[in-house]
Specification:
Blueprint: H1 6-28, H2 33-60, H3 68-80, H4 82-98, H5 112-119, H6 126-154, H7 160-180, H8 182-210, H9 229-246, H10 256-262, H11 267-278, H12 282-298, H13 308-314, H14 320-331, H15 335-347
Helix pairs in contact: 1-2, 1-8, 2-3, 2-4, 2-8, 4-6, 6-7, 7-8, 9-11, 10-11
Length: about 350
């Protein structure tokens, strides 16, 4: 019968808590990419910590037996996951800080060492880890940790809650790195690092559950924004002046990001101003100007010989179907009916 002491049981419960919390994060808001990455980070780290528990149980329970090759493969799998922890930690910071919701395929290159070692986990011997593999894995994590720290220190648009969460996450990760570093591991032993992980998981859980905005920005759409009301009003005035003078909406390829660049602001701030100050999303906001431009040309005799489709494209639309639908929605009639109405009024 398997015997587990109290400390080992506590460590096992910590891993269970991490796995449960990963599922909770995905259920809470699976659409946010940074939440998916955080859930994967918890899963990968838990697998790594579980390896230490398996080794510890074998040391404290002489009755615990397992075929050597199976035991060696499980240990290899656990150690191999160290090469996934660093990239996932960094990508979480990247996606969280930049609010990025697209995963470029080239980011998969970060996981080549992990995938390679995982495929070889059934043949790797202990000498591989003993003669440099462990040090390489810890240096690998340290490099990504420093990248994450750099992202955090240069982030300029984080709310106080998000800043506090990321700072605590860096602190917890730093403590774990110290506990599992080859230089200190002989003093910590297999189980103490797992216990620190357990304490960290419960601490992180309390932070995230106490501040749901960290998991899901959409609950309070702009609660996490650092944009002050006065800055919002200034950006609104700057936006209106830019549109009146430069007419950026005439560009069919205009995007929120490109318009924000023209205004020397962030896409998040610009989106917030358009939402709060004008009560519209970006597309509706820009298309409203395009519709007004078409209306002006339809009332101008200089454009009478031009087809409506030509006017739509000249006003920034790149889809005639979209233009017709939006024009009817905003004006209450089709473009051709509007032109006839205007012509009738002029001839009356």
């Amino acid at each position: 019968m398997l015997h587990i002491d109290l400390l080992t049981l506590f460590a096992v419960l910590g891993i269970a808590q991490a796995l449960f919390f990963a599922i909770f994060i995905l259920a809470k808001n699976h659409k946010q990419l940074f939440n998916k990455v955080l859930a994967l980070l918890l899963l990968v780290t838990s697998i790594r910590i579980a390896k230490n528990i398996v080794v510890h149980i074998r040391e404290i329970d002489p009755d615990f037996s397992m075929p050597y090759r199976l035991w060696r493969m499980l240990v290899n799998i656990g150690l191999t996951h160290q090469f996934a922890i660093g990239p996932l930690f960094f990508l979480y910071f990247l996606f969280r800080i930049q609010n990025q919701n697209r995963f470029p395929k080239q980011y998969l290159l970060h996981f080549i060492p992990f995938a390679t070692l995982l495929a070889l986990s059934f043949v790797i011997e202990w000498n591989f880890w003993k003669n440099g593999g462990l040090w390489v894995s810890y240096i690998h994590i340290l490099i990504y940790y420093l990248f994450s720290l750099h992202l955090y220190r240069n982030a300029k648009e984080l709310s106080t809650k998000t800043q506090s969460w990321l700072r605590n996450l860096l602190l917890l990760a730093g403590i774990m790195m110290l506990a599992y570093s080859p230089a200190l591991f002989k003093y910590m032993g297999y189980i103490n690092g797992a216990l620190i992980y357990t304490i960290g998981i419960y601490f992180a859980t309390s932070i995230l559950l106490g501040n749901p905005i960290i998991l899901n920005r959409k609950k309070e759409k702009y609660e996490s924004s650092a944009l002050r009301p006065r800055d919002s009003n200034e950006l609104k005035a700057k936006l209106e002046a830019h549109i009146a003078m430069n007419k950026p909406y005439l560009d069919p390829d205009l995007t929120l990001t490109s318009l924000a660049k023209q205004l020397d602001t962030s896409p998040n701030y610009l989106s917030q101003v358009i939402n709060e100050q004008f009560g519209k999303n970006f597309s509706d906001f820009i298309n409203a100007y395009r519709i007004e431009t078409v209306k002006e040309m339809l009332t101008n005799t200089d454009y009478h010989a031009l087809k409506i489709a030509s006017l739509a494209f000249d006003s920034g639309f790149n889809s005639l179907a979209t233009f017709n639908a939006l024009f009817k929605k905003q004006v209450g009639m089709t473009p051709s009916a509007y032109r006839k109405q205007i012509s009738g009024l002029k001839n009356a």
